[in-house]
Amino acid sequence: MILRLKRQHVRLLKEEARKVHPIEACALLFGRLTRKEAFVKRVVVTANELQSTVRFEIDPETFVKAFTEADGEGLEFIGLFHSHPAPAKPSLIDLKYMKLWGDALWLILSSTSGSFAAYQMRQGQVKEITTKVE
Length: 134
Fold this sequence. Notes:
The chain is of the alpha/beta class. The chain has a single domain, classed as Cytidine Deaminase, domain 2. 25% of the residues lie in helices and 40% in strands. The chain has helices spanning 7-20, 60-72, 92-98; strands spanning 2-5, 26-33, 37-46, 76-84, 105-110, 116-122, 125-133. A 7-stranded mixed β-barrel has the order 1-3-2-4-5-6-7. The two termini are 16 Å apart.
């Protein structure tokens, strides 16, 4: 699987992470999915309801509204974005919740180094996903 993002999406996510640091920034990713690639077409930045440096939570109403709008545009849910004031790797908390999200991709940005990486849990195994910025 390859996750394809536009430069403007990366700028938006990095800017949000910078603004809320050290709190975890979060967003929803929507676009088009094929068997081998996920094309991000829309990023919905959301507030971290927990205001936490180690966890994030998205308001359910925000979640439903974003899903409804994306569905109306013919876009599919690709995954979740959040930042860590640490390396761009899933935390133990992330691993717990990744199990609940099926094949959703998790894009993680290190707000300290500016690097990011994507992950997907399949059959209980976490795999790093190739990320391409276009």
